[in-house]
Structures are given as C-alpha cells and as structure tokens.
Specification:
Elements lengths: L2 E6 L3 H17 L4 E7 L14 E5 L1 H12 L1
Parallel strand pairs: 1-2, 2-3
Length: 72
C-alpha cells in the first residue's frame, strides 16, 4: 500500500486549486491512502472529499501566536 501526503498550509485558495491534483492522484493511484496536511482552519474545505482518506489538521495559527509571544 502506498501513502501519499499532500501539504497545503498557507493559503486557502491554493488548497482549493489543489483539489483537481488530489483527484488526479486518486485516479492514478487508486490503492494509495491519500493524507492531506492542512491548517486547522482549512480542514472543513476537504471534509467529504471522496479523494481524501485522512485530513491532518495542524493548528498553524496557534504556532505563529506562540512564536510571537516568545519574541515579546
């Protein structure tokens, strides 16, 4: 079994535009598990997408806030 990880963390529009590429990955690799790493705030965009096996949510906004707090 293959695993494919798609990472789309910084722009919501880029995530939307990557959905045809994810569909192509599914078509070309029907037996693979496709995981998508996204900003937590973008995860709803992929829910219900039949080409995605797993949505991995990363709370980038909290990470950025934590880094800003450390600099202060």
């Amino acid at each position: 079994m293959k695993n494919i990880l798609v990472m789309q963390l910084f722009r919501h529009g880029d995530l939307l535009q990557s959905t045809p590429a994810i569909a192509t990955l599914r078509r070309d690799h029907p037996d693979a598990r496709i995981h998508v790493l996204v900003r937590k705030s973008f995860a709803d965009t992929l829910r219900g997408n039949p080409d995605v096996d797993e949505i991995i949510e990363w709370d980038v906004d909290s990470l950025i806030a934590d880094c800003a707090d450390e600099e202060a």
